[in-house]
Specification:
This protein has about 400 residues and is of the alpha/beta class. The protein has two domains: about 240 residues, Type I PLP-dependent aspartate aminotransferase-like (Major domain) (Aspartate Aminotransferase, domain 2); about 130 residues, Alpha-Beta Complex (Aspartate Aminotransferase, domain 1), CATH 3.90.1150.10. It contains 13 helices and 15 strands. It has a seven-stranded mixed beta sheet with strand order 2-10-9-8-5-3-4, with helices on both faces. The protein has a four-stranded antiparallel beta sheet with strand order 11-12-15-14, covered by helices on one side. Strands 1-13 form a two-stranded parallel ribbon. Helix 2 packs across helix 9. About 50% of the residues are buried. The structure holds pyridoxal-5'-phosphate. The site of pyridoxal-5'-phosphate has 14 residues, from helix 3. Pyridoxal-5'-phosphate (PLP) binds next to helix 3.
């Protein structure tokens, strides 16, 4: 017998029992008053969590489906899109926009670096004729563990007037986002991250400006035609059969989040990040994102000791402790390993992962003072929660 597998990867993430139980129930009929009530409640909670005065729609897809819906509903062939790229998921926006016939310009930084607000502002100010229709931004770049300064980036986009299209797949529900106040126009998220559900449901937020763009957008779409979802939602229903079980389970999940308080959740993620960073540096390992300010509250990327391969470390973590950690992606494969800490993850899990990590590193021949990782993390966690942010 083995202990339960523990996912310390950047999604899918652990799911609370109450959410699993909600999914396990017989599905509701989707054209019923009961389901309409859930739909309306979930929509209101999703908006509250994003501080959104616009609209939010749920799509039966993974996060990438919502990214595609964002482009298909706002970008027409020939439109110019500026894609801010600091990793794999920033690049994904550029690929989708290219697939829809956009002319894509890239503002790219090295892996591990955040998007520079000044560089974005300079690029947009140089666009005197306002040919750039939209800017795509990844709030939290999962492939590197960088969180960008979305507030300031969105502000720079708003000064120019382009649409601000944001991927918040691994930040929504774990880090504060003020959709309307920050001037975001389109924002996407997925269920299998801080929303604490399995993969399969995506959400997309739309501002009034986004709807204006939607009305004149000529890109083809049918299932992802967001106007259909909007019209249906006005009648408290959906255009197609939604993933009813997940919508019902999302209500459970959002209720749990409300009980903790959103601020409490953000503080928890921040403390987990700080404790984990202290633990791994205490063990003598190198953080891939050295600047704390840009270090993700949901994913920590770590460079392994030169004598130990990412593969060996991940395998040992899995075989000895049944804990899964992630490899790097694309160019960072075998160069970094990533520990996810989002959603239904707590300080206990960080301490457990650090202990297992130290034991595995030791088994693979690395030497550090015994217990230094957990000790360094505890030094962070012994401060009162309110002082952590
Ligand atoms: C930042 C980010 N954007 C987009 C995606 C794509 O989401 P999905 O895999 O649900 O399509 C992911 C997935 O991990 C992600 O981390």
């Amino acid at each position: 017998m083995q202990p339960k597998e523990f996912l310390m990867i950047p999604g899918p993430t652990p799911v609370p029992d109450a959410v699993l139980e909600a999914i396990a129930r017989d599905p509701m009929g989707h054209r019923t008053k009961e389901f309409s009530k859930v739909l309306v409640e979930v929509t209101a909670s999703l908006k509250k969590l994003a501080e959104c005065n616009g609209e939010v729609l749920m799509l039966t897809s993974s996060g990438t489906g919502a990214m595609e819906a964002a482009i298909a509903n706002t970008i027409s062939p020939g439109d110019k899109v500026l894609s801010c790229i600091c990793g794999v998921f920033g690049e994904r926006w550029a690929k989708i926009a290219t697939a829809y016939g956009a002319e894509v310009e890239k503002l790219q930084v090295e892996n591990g670096e955040p998007i520079s607000v000044d560089a974005l502002r300079d690029k947009l100010q140089a666009d005197r004729n306002h040919t750039i229709k939209a800017v795509t931004i990844t709030h939290n770049e999962t492939s590197t563990g960088v969180i960008n300064d979305l507030h300031q980036l969105a502000l720079a986009v708003r000064e120019h007037g382009a649409l601000c299209i944001v991927d918040a797949v691994t930040s929504y529900g774990a880090a504060p986002i003020e959709f309307s106040h920050w001037g975001i126009d389109v924002m996407v998220a997925g269920s299998q991250k801080a929303l604490m559900l399995p993969p399969g449901l995506a959400v997309i937020f739309m501002s009034d400006r986004a709807w204006e763009a939607q009305a004149s957008c000529t890109s083809p779409r049918f299932y992802f035609d967001l106007a259909k979802y909007r019209t249906s939602l006005e009648q408290e229903t959906t255009p197609f059969t939604p993933n009813v079980s997940f919508v019902v389970a999302l209500k459970t999940s959002l209720d749990l989040m409300k009980q903790d308080g959103y601020r409490g959740i953000y503080v928890r993620h921040d403390r987990m990040k700080k404790a984990l960073r202290a633990g791994v540096t205490g063990m003598g390992l190198k953080l891939f994102v050295p600047k704390e300010q840009y270090a993700s509250p949901t994913i920590t990327s770590i460079v392994p000791p030169t004598s130990i391969s990412v593969d060996a470390l991940r395998r040992t973590m899995k075989e000895r402790y049944n804990i899964r950690v992630a490899d790097g992606q694309d160019a960072l494969k075998n160069k970094i390993f990533r520990i996810g800490h989002m959603g239904y993850v707590f300080e206990r899990d960080i301490l457990m992962t650090l202990s297992a990590l130290e034991a595995c590193l030791t088994e693979l021949g690395y030497r550090c003072p015994s217990g230094i990782g957990v000790g360094s993390a505890l030094a962070v966690l012994s401060t009162p929660a309110s002082a952590a942010t």
